[in-house]
Amino acid sequence: MKSRYVDPFTPDIPVSDPTRFSGRKTQVELVVDSLYQLKHGKPTSTIITGDRGIGKSSLLNQAKELAQGDNRLPLRLGIDLGVEFQ
């Protein structure tokens, strides 16, 4: 028997809650690296591109959360932040 679940995807409404963001570990890793370089005085350029509806705005929301100190997403994905945090 197929189990039912509520689909977390809502078209045209980017995900802002890190607990609801799923996948994209490679992309989140790149964002973490860019923020790490910025923190250490070596800013790099990061471009988020892709087809419409692929999750660019959601990834950008997660980058904003991370830049503001919310480390839940990289911790959940097992990404090393390269710095100590509490």
Give a topology summary.
Elements: H1 25-39, H2 56-67, H3 72-77
Helix pairs in contact: 1-2
Describe the structure.
This protein has 86 residues and is an all-alpha fold. The protein has a domain at 25-71. 38% of the residues lie in helices and 0% in strands. The protein is built from 3 helices and no strands. Helix 1 (25-39) runs parallel beside helix 2 (56-67). The relative contact order is 0.21.
Write out key terms for the chains shown:
single chain, 38% helix
Extended strand count = 0
Which blocks of ≥5 consecutive residues have pLDDT under 50? Answer: none
Q: Please estimate the helix content.
A: 25-40%
Biggest β-sheet description: none
Which structural category do the helix and sheet elements fall into?
mainly alpha
What is the CA-based Rg, rounded? 14 Å
Reading the helices and strands in chain order gives HHH
What oligomerization state is this entry in? single chain
Mean pLDDT: 86
Cα end-to-end separation: 44 Å
Apparent shape: globular
The number of helical segments is: 3
- Percentage beta strand: under 5%
